[in-house]
Amino acid sequence: MENHWSNLQSSGRDKQRKKGFTAGQGGSSGGEDGDRKPKFMDRFASIRIPGSKKERPHLPHVKHSSSSEWSSSSAEFEELSSKITSEQEILGLFEKMMEDMNLNDDKKAPLREKDLSTKREMVIQYIVTASKTGSVCSSHQISPQEFLGELKSGVTDERLMACLDSLRVSLTSNPVSWVQSFGHEGLGLLLDILEKLLHKKHQDKPDKKSQHKVIQCLKAFMNNKYGLERILSEEKCLSLLARAIDPTQPAMMTDVVKLLSAICIVGEENTLEKVLEAVTTAGEHRATERFSPIVEGLRDRSVQLQVACMQLINALVTSPDELDFRLHIRNEFIRSGLREILPVS
Predict the structure, then answer these.
(1) What is each CA distance from 336 to 171, 254, 276, 328, in whole angstroms?
(2) Helix, strand and coil percent figures for the chain, each rounded to 5
(3) Which of 17, 106, 211, 287 is most buried, by CB atoms within 10 Å?
(4) How many Cβ atoms sit within 10 Å of the Cβ of residue 168?
(5) Residue 52 — very low, low, confident or very high, per pLDDT cuts 50/70/90?
(6) Which segments of 22-144 are extended strands (E)?
(7) How far apart are CA 246 and CA 254, in angstroms?
């Protein structure tokens, strides 16, 4: 899977990349095979999403020879080849395949130039391979629904940390279709857990670790276009991230400020205003200057945290279109102690 996150960090304020990030999803299938089209679209959308009982065989009792595996795959390939024939359906599935692989626009461009026959073969092979991989791994993979059930159960402490750590791995390693299945409900549950942890007056070590695990899950969740759009659509997400800027937890704060700087860069026109509002509210909650925790992060020994804080400062200072507003934010950072840390001209 392509590293979408690294593309965010290196995108700067490039307006074209902003537009590319908010582009619509791939084309939908259609055409003359309308009666059977939903069957294949549903099948494609569910590939590599284990979870149903019939998809989770007991592997110790299942023995496959290499020849039988090849025969099964070949038969499935031939079956799909005879059914996926219309150009519109092939192109629609091809776009979905690239989305599921989390490819950026630069990677999609040369693939779109391939002829229809090659695209058709790539789509069918992807469906066969991904379905086979999902069935083989289903005995030890956890489905989105199982994670949702665990998070709803109100688990705490060590069990919560284990659940969140496993969820982070699943959000990172599975295709976009898996993230979509976790989707709206899962993001809401993560934010509810983070809010509950942040509201605790006396946080013990497991609470702080769980906070960081939630942040890592959010980072993995938004590592694709769908996840980023979902994050930006949640009103309380930015406010919770701003409240999680905690210099006493350098590792967690590093991930938080990285998230916020990426959101500032690739978000819509009003995203910066929302981030500043969230940071302001968090400052009022702490009864401190709103940029003080960010500046304080520059004093930490962690080079990663220092770099992340500078990324956020640059994103906040350079994102506004109006020069006066940029100067206002810059001067506010200076008043918060930036001059004592860095030589500011």
Answers:
(1) 37, 19, 15, 12
(2) 70, 0, 30
(3) 211
(4) 19
(5) very low
(6) none
(7) 9
Q: How far apart are CA 313 and CA 334, in angstroms?
A: 11
The upper half-sphere exposure of residue 79, i.e. CA atoms within 13 Å in the direction of its Cβ, equals: 9
Taking a C-beta distance cutoff of 8 angstroms, is the pair 293, 241 a contact? no
Q: Does residue 171 contact residue 87 with C-beta atoms inside 8 Å?
A: no
Handedness of CA 73, 77, 78, 82 (dihedral sign): positive
Q: What is the Cα–Cα distance from 8 to 163, expressed in whole angstroms?
A: 27
Task: Please report, to the nearest 10 degrees, the dihedral formed by the alpha carbons of residues 136, 139, 142, 143 taken in order.
Answer: 70
How many CB atoms neighbour CB 113 within 10 A? 9
Q: Reduce the DSSP state of residue 7 to 3 states and report it.
A: helix
**Token reading at 29:** 């299938």
For residues 163 and 198, the answer to whether their CB atoms sit within 8 Å is no
Give the residue among 283, 264, 160 at the shortest CA–CA distance from 212.
Answer: 160
50 CB neighbour count, 10 Å cutoff: 22
HEC string of 63-126 equals CCCHHHHHHHHHHHHHHHHHHCCCHHHHHHHHHHHHHHCCCCHHHHHHHHCCCHHHHHHHHHHH
Confirm if 161 and 211 have CB atoms less than 8 A apart.
no
Is the model's pTM score more than 0.70? no
**Residue showing tokens 């968090």:** 282
| DSSP secondary structure string for all residues of 183-227 | HHHHHHHHHHHHHHHHH-SS--HHHHHHHHHHHHHHHHHTSSHHH
Query: What pLDDT is stored for residue 83 in this prediction?
Result: 65
Query: How confident is the model over 305-335, as pLDDT tens digits?
Result: 999 999 999 999 998 889 999 999 999 999 9
Query: Cα Rg for the chain, rounded, in angstroms?
Result: 23
